[in-house]
Amino acid sequence: MKGPAPLSRLEYIIIGIVVGVSVPAACTFIGWGSAVSLYILFSSSGFPEDANTVAAVAGASVGMLMTAIHLRTWIVWFYATAWWWIISSFVFWSAVVMTVFGGMPFGNIVLAMLAGVYAGRRSFFAGLDRVAYVRRARRVGYLAGSITGIMYGAVVLATATDGKFGSGTIARALGLEHGTVSTRTGLLMLLGGWCAAVYASYWCARIGAAYAYGCGKELS
Question: I need a labelling partner for 45 at 20 to 30 A (CA). Which of 38, 61, 75, 126 fits?
Answer without folding.
Answer: 61
